[in-house]
Design a protein that fits this description.
The complex is a heterodimer of chains A (256) and B (343).
Chain A: E1 2-11, E2 14-24, E3 29-33, H1 40-47, E4 55-60, E5 63-64, H2 70-75, E6 78-80, H3 93-100, H4 109-114, H5 117-137, H6 152-165, E7 170-174, H7 182-197, E8 201-205, H8 209-215, E9 218-223, E10 226-231, H9 233-238, H10 240-245
Parallel strand pairs in A: 3-8, 3-9, 6-7, 7-8
Antiparallel strand pairs in A: 1-2, 1-4, 4-5, 9-10
Helix pairs in contact in A: 3-6, 5-6, 6-7
Chain B: H1 2-25, H2 28-51, H3 60-77, H4 82-104, H5 109-129, H6 131-134, E1 140-141, H7 159-182, H8 184-194, H9 196-201, H10 206-232, E2 234-235, H11 242-255, H12 262-276, H13 284-298, H14 306-321, H15 337-341
Antiparallel strand pairs in B: 1-2
Helix pairs in contact in B: 1-7, 2-7, 2-10, 2-12, 3-4, 3-5, 3-10, 4-10, 7-10, 8-10, 11-12
């Protein structure tokens, strides 16, 4: 599904990602972990096209997407969310999802401006689709609330719904449970598992080890831009280099 | 809901009466003032379209000048009739807008400010520099439009017919801009301002949308420029200088740019104020400066945010007068109706 070959990104003298190889199989939840500043978000920015790699290639569904702009990558079926669960705060929850249905609205600019009967019908069907997505995410009751007023856990759900609205084959989630309490974390992780069960592959960056353990099918750990371990979550957790990277602190939680 | 119906009532009932009767009750000078106001309304509304993507272009007045110069050349040098020159000059401005909009769409924030200012000044300086065809510092003469040569009472060199011509053009422009603002395109533009990276990650080509907004905004600025030029009968580069840009910014800051009507409130109220303060004309720029500073401190979202700020106080008064409804009784019918109709 997604393959990174010797992916390297250097910012001046600093190498944020160093020759990273990674392979994500279809229908999997792959976790990318690592201490702060280890280059996880940089990997995401490279894959989604917000940054261009210094060296290396990125293949998505067998196609070379290295250096494509973000909107073209999204068009190929790869959507992402952002840290701090960014949404369009000024819009309502429903409007958020409708806006993110951009790729599948089925109307061009002229039709959107003129709004003839056919276009209005299509707009209505996009609205139904968005509403269905919200229902599936358990956000239907909040559809008419302003997105900026939602509690944190629901904003994360909306962020995922926004990404799903682009009908991706693979979604990248950047710290989906960052700053959440345990209940919200469990809810969000349940949502992510449901996304996977619907045939959409998931690639996520996360700090919360317990969430990673309970959800991911496979985990890769990087530090200072280098891959130090990969494999099933529990094996990665017990890897001595991983424990060293986290200074034992967070990894102890694995055994709880 | 109530608010909207008041507004609809105003646009259907009161506005046409004012707009049609005003030129017959006012003196010639004041009719020209109204014509000017309509042109400025077109200007701020087209400017707002560009601001919805997040950039405050300083090239908007030069784009207006592009329309004016284009029409001066089309009608004056080439003898194109006014009715064809009007959309053609708008398209010229829109095309130039697309050309400078493409590089501008890649800049953000302060860089956008500076780059748009530079682009606008470059256009303006080229009018001064090239005596042929732009006439240099002294500018160009603009012919008086003769739409219906056979109809003698419809003389567009006089104030009242020209006012109605401007009114018609303005209403068409506003209708198109309003439609655009309310459509999916308008929402997409606002979403780009709200979170640019998120729009890109769901497949929206933000550069394309920004160029479209800039280009369409420039088109309508160009139309405003054409209408201005054919009333003034002569244009010169100085009219489209930075002072005019500053006035445009003052109108939009004062009115607010989050709603479609905000900038229009701004330009109407400040034009009325400037007229009231006519005896103190020399002081007007200073008074405007003070207004802007006070607006930014006390009303940062502009005049449009005022009703929303006052309303809570009004509501509080109303709620106190009404006794709280009994909680145990569930009364169907009129009490439940307003809540359900909200959605």
């Amino acid at each position: 599904m997604l393959e990174l070959h010797a992916l390297t990104k250097a910012f001046g003298q600093n190498t944020a990602v160093m020759s990273l190889d990674l392979r994500l199989r279809e229908g999997q939840i792959m976790g990318l972990i690592g201490p702060n500043g280890s280059g996880k978000t940089t990997v995401f920015n490279l894959v989604s096209g917000f940054l261009t790699p210094t060296r290396g290639r990125i293949y998505f569904q067998g196609r070379d997407i290295t250096g494509l702009p973000p909107h073209k990558i999204a068009r190929l079926g790869l959507a992402r969310t952002f840290q701090l669960t960014a949404v369009f705060r000024e819009f309502t929850v429903l409007e958020n999802v409708i806006l993110c249905c951009h790729l599948h609205s089925g109307t061009n600019l002229w039709q959107q401006f003129l709004r003839d009967r056919k276009t209005r019908r299509k707009e209505k069907s996009v609205e139904y689709k968005a509403m269905g997505l919200l229902e599936w995410m358990g956000l239907k009751e909040l559809a008419f609330d302003r997105a900026g007023d939602l509690p944190h856990g629901h904003v994360a759900g909306l962020g995922i719904a926004n990404a799903l609205a682009a009908e991706p084959r693979l979604i990248l989630l950047d710290e989906p449970v960052g700053g959440m309490n345990p209940t919200e974390t469990e809810e969000t992780m349940e949502r992510i598992r449901r996304v996977r069960d619907n045939g959409i592959s998931v690639f996520l960056v996360e700090h919360d080890m317990r969430a990673v353990l309970s959800t991911c099918d496979e985990v890769t750990c990087i530090n200072f831009g280098n891959k130090i371990a990969e494999g099933p979550p529990r094996a990665v957790c017990e890897h001595p280099e991983v424990i060293e990277a986290y200074l034992g602190g967070e990894v102890e939680e694995c055994y709880l | 809901m109530q608010n909207i119906s008041y507004r609809q009532a105003f646009f259907i009932g009161v506005f046409p009466i004012i707009a049609v009767s005003a030129p017959f009750t006012l003196s010639g000078y004041k009719v020209d003032l109204l014509t000017n106001l309509l042109i400025n309304i077109m200007l701020v509304s087209s400017f707002r379209l560009i601001t919805t993507t997040g950039g405050w272009s300083l090239a908007h007045i030069p784009m207006m000048g592009c329309g004016a110069y284009a029409s001066a050349l089309f009608t004056g040098a080439l003898g194109v009739p006014f009715l064809i020159s009007l959309p053609l000059s708008g398209l010229t401005a829109g095309l130039i807008g697309a050309l400078i909009g493409y590089p501008l769409a890649r800049t953000k924030g302060f860089a956008f400010f500076v780059a748009s200012f530079a682009a606008g000044e470059a256009i303006r300086l080229s009018w001064m520099r090239f005596k042929v065809p732009f006439g240099g510092h002294s500018g160009l003469m603009v012919p008086i439009p003769d739409l219906f040569e056979s109809v003698s009472w419809l003389d567009f060199s006089t104030a009242v017919p020209y006012y109605f011509l401007t009114l018609l053009v303005t209403l068409i422009c506003l209708a198109v801009l309003y439609r655009l603002d309310r459509s999916r395109i308008g929402n997409t533009l606002k979403a780009i301002e709200s979170h640019e990276d998120l729009t890109r990650s769901v497949g929206i080509n933000r550069t394309k949308y920004k160029v479209i907004a800039f280009s369409v905004g420039s088109f309508f600025a160009g139309i405003a420029g054409v209408v201005l030029a054919h009333r003034l009968w002569a244009i010169e580069p100085h009219q489209f200088g930075f002072t005019t840009t500053l006035y445009l910014l003052v109108w939009v800051v004062f009115g607010g740019s989050h709603t479609f009507s905000g900038p229009i409130y701004g330009v109407v109220s400040l034009t009325l104020l400037a007229e009231v303060l006519r005896p103190l004309a020399e002081w007007v720029p200073m008074i405007f400066g003070a207004i802007i500073i006070l607006t930014l401190i006390f009303l940062p979202d502009g005049l449009e945010s005022l009703p929303g700020k006052i309303r809570p106080y009004l509501w509080k008064g109303k709620e106190r007068r009404e006794p709280p409804p009994p909680a145990e009784e569930t009364r169907p019918g009129p009490m439940a109706a307003p809540e359900s109709s909200e959605r």
